[in-house]
């Protein structure tokens, strides 16, 4: 906080809580912090004035307008009359009505826009990271391959891992993987089959996402425009992180919000909303060898056993209320129907329903 300016204090959640709600914990922390850092008193007072001015008056304006107003306001804050630091300022009425603070109507409009930005919790959408930006930021010599053909191309890397690259897609990678990790940069779509090596993680950089694996197979789809990235897992586990634009020059920094994906799960990142969505792939595949494929033939089988067999076969958790469905039994035989078709038939037979939630199947039933 010692390097914060008023525009940075104001969006801080605990600071807003202190000034607007007065919670005991936040009030105690900030009172002690201000006492220990008297040189920041004026910045604290300006931030408090901003919050008071816009707490109850704001409208939504575009992101570009917000950025312009914040930049303009940052400069105009320095033109405010000097504030005393002997005692904390208590703001009882909107400051623009006070004779000591005559401000132009344009300044007030800027504050209204800033208020909306502040109350959104500082959650502006990050600028997209492009493939070119990521590649240029690394200091490691990279080899690039571009699939200029009309068919998928299989590329084998130095460690034995392979990438099946779709037409128009491209990758950059270190030819010998001599560093602490195996880093690949992707634009377009590629199916990865990664050789397991716990001592040297495999990292795939695509726009705003980093996909980290030890050994597995998965697909990454990264639109060149950067507006959407999808990660679809076939086998094993992968961890997906957000890649911070501020750390584009340090590709291993700025990772947060880990999402772990299991077989038949996918993650979709929408850049415009800066949101992750975890779900199931459109056509979940069996996770067992062909010779170990279950028969999926049930005769008066308790529904708990049916769901357990489906869960094992597809590697997908099926959630249901065991107590409610304790009297449910199934007699049915399935062949090569897709998983969702199986579930449709089972739930219709039992008068139940299902939905996908966070990469799981959730069954809803009133009993049998």
Gist of the model:
It contains 9 helices and 18 strands. With 368 residues, the protein is α+β, with helices and mostly antiparallel strands.
Question: What this model shows, in words?
Answer:
This protein is an alpha+beta fold. The protein is 27% helix and 27% strand. It has nine helices and 18 strands. Strands 1, 2, 3, 4, 5, 6, 7, 8, 9, 10, 11, 12 and 13 form a 13-stranded mixed beta sheet that branches. A hairpin with a 4-residue loop joins strand 12 (265-270) and strand 13. Helix 2 (13-21) packs across helix 3 (24-36), helix 4 (41-54) crosses helix 6 (105-119) and helix 5 (63-77) packs across helix 6. The protein is flat and about 75 Å long. Mean pLDDT is 76; it is low at 56-63, 80-106, 116-125 and 245-256.
Question: How is the topology of this model organized?
Answer:
Layout lengths: L5 H4 L3 H9 L2 H13 L4 H14 L8 H15 L27 H15 L11 H7 L5 E4 L6 E4 L5 E4 L4 E4 L8 E12 L8 E5 L2 E5 L3 E6 L5 E8 L2 E6 L11 E7 L3 E6 L4 E6 L16 E6 H12 L3 E2 L9 E5 L5 H12 L2 E5 L2 E5 L4
Parallel strand pairs: 5-6, 15-18
Antiparallel strand pairs: 1-4, 2-3, 3-5, 4-5, 5-8, 6-7, 7-10, 8-9, 9-12, 10-11, 12-13, 14-16, 17-18
Helix pairs in contact: 2-3, 4-6, 5-6
Features:
13-stranded mixed beta sheet, alpha+beta, 368 residues
């Amino acid at each position: 906080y010692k390097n914060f300016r008023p525009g940075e204090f104001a969006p801080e959640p605990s600071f807003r809580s202190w000034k607007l709600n007065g919670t005991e914990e936040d009030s105690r922390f900030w009172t002690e912090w201000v006492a220990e850092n008297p040189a920041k008193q004026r910045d604290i007072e300006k931030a408090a004035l901003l919050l008071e001015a816009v707490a109850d008056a704001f409208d939504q304006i575009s992101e570009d307008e917000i950025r312009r107003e914040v930049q303009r306001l940052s400069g105009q804050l320095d033109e405010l009359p000097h504030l005393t630091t002997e005692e904390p300022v208590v703001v009882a009425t909107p400051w623009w009505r006070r004779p000591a603070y005559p401000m132009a109507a344009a300044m007030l409009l800027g504050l209204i826009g800033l208020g909306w930005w502040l109350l959104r919790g500082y959650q502006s959408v990050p600028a997209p990271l492009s493939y070119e930006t990521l590649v240029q930021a690394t200091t490691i010599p990279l080899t690039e391959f571009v699939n200029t053909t009309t068919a998928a191309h299989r590329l084998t890397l130095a460690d034995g891992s392979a990438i099946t690259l779709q037409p128009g897609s491209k990758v950059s990678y270190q030819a010998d993987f001599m560093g602490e990790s195996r880093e690949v940069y992707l634009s377009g779509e590629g199916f990865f089959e990664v050789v397991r090596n716990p001592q040297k993680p495999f990292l795939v950089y695509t726009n705003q996402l980093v996909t980290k694996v030890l050994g597995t197979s998965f697909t990454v789809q990264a639109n060149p425009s950067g507006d959407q990235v999808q990660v679809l897992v076939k086998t094993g586990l992968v961890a997906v992180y957000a890649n911070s634009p501020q750390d584009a020059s340090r590709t291993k920094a700025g990772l947060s919000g880990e999402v772990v994906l299991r077989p038949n799960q996918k993650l979709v990142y929408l850049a415009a909303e800066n949101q992750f969505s975890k779900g199931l792939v459109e056509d979940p595949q069996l996770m067992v060898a062909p010779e170990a494929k279950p028969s999926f033939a049930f005769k008066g089988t308790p529904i708990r056993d049916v769901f357990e067999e489906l869960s094992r076969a597809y590697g997908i958790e099926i959630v249901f209320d065991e107590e409610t469905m304790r009297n449910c039994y199934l007699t049915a035989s399935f062949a090569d129907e897709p998983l969702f078709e199986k579930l449709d038939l089972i739930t219709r037979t039992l008068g139940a329903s299902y939905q996908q939630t966070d990469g799981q199947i959730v069954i809803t039933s009133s009993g049998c």
